[in-house]
Design a protein that fits this description.
single chain; 6 helices; NAD(P)-bd_dom; NAD(P)-bd_dom_sf
Length: 208
């Protein structure tokens, strides 16, 4: 089994990612959290944790880690410090630690922040983080979902390198997609967008 560090494990999407990894026969989650309280929440469920702050050195969080899912975010409070520079810190540390694959939770609109009517600062930060990952030399998948909601999983998505229109998608289906692209033979060195759709998540990757 491969150890997967989940940055942002305590977030709404992060918790779902950790749960899916717990149920996987291929991967074992290591939840990266910022506080002892959050740590205890995961450890009572038998989930391995590590304390880490994206605004500081994170190299210690990657000990014995094979792959990374970056699902952290500041919720708009510190887009430069966390969403941009925190992501860059984790990317650089991952390269140093020879991480096999880095899966980035990005956002639709991060390819052209200047065209967005709102959240331009956030999308610019995500764009900068994505570009840093692309040029890092790491194997990566950059997943750009539409607007997130808390609907139940449908296990179906619409996936393209660039979708023709905006849309919504459940955090549950995003979490499934992120876990799916951890596989060695799926979505290597690619960036793609997803919204809710009619194609089974596993089959949707045939589009890339």
């Amino acid at each position: 089994m491969e150890n997967v560090l989940v940055a942002g494990a305590n977030g709404t999407t992060g918790k779902q990612i950790v749960q899916l990894l717990t149920e996987s026969q291929y991967f074992k989650p290591v939840a990266m959290v910022r506080s002892i309280d959050q740590m205890q929440d995961f450890e009572t469920k038998g989930i391995q944790t590590v304390l880490g702050d994206l605004e500081k050195d994170v190299s210690h969080t990657l000990e014995n880690i094979d792959k990374v899912i970056f699902a952290a975010g500041s919720g708009g409070k510190n887009v430069i410090g966390v969403d941009q520079e925190g992501a860059k810190r984790m990317i650089d540390a991952s390269k140093h630690a020879n991480i096999k694959k880095f899966v980035m939770l990005s956002s639709m609109g991060a390819d052209a922040p200047e065209k967005a009517e709102q959240l331009q600062d956030y999308l610019k930060a995500k764009q900068n983080a994505d570009e840093h990952l692309k040029s890092s030399g790491l194997n990566y998948a950059i997943v750009r979902p539409g607007s997130l909601n808390n609907d139940k999983p449908t296990n179906h998505i619409q996936l393209q390198p660039k979708l023709s229109q905006q849309g919504e998608i459940s955090r549950a289906d995003v979490a499934q997609t992120l876990v799916r692209v951890l596989n060695d033979n799926t979505a290597n060195k690619v960036t793609f967008e997803i919204v809710k759709g009619d194609t089974l998540i596993g089959k949707a990757f045939e589009n890339i």
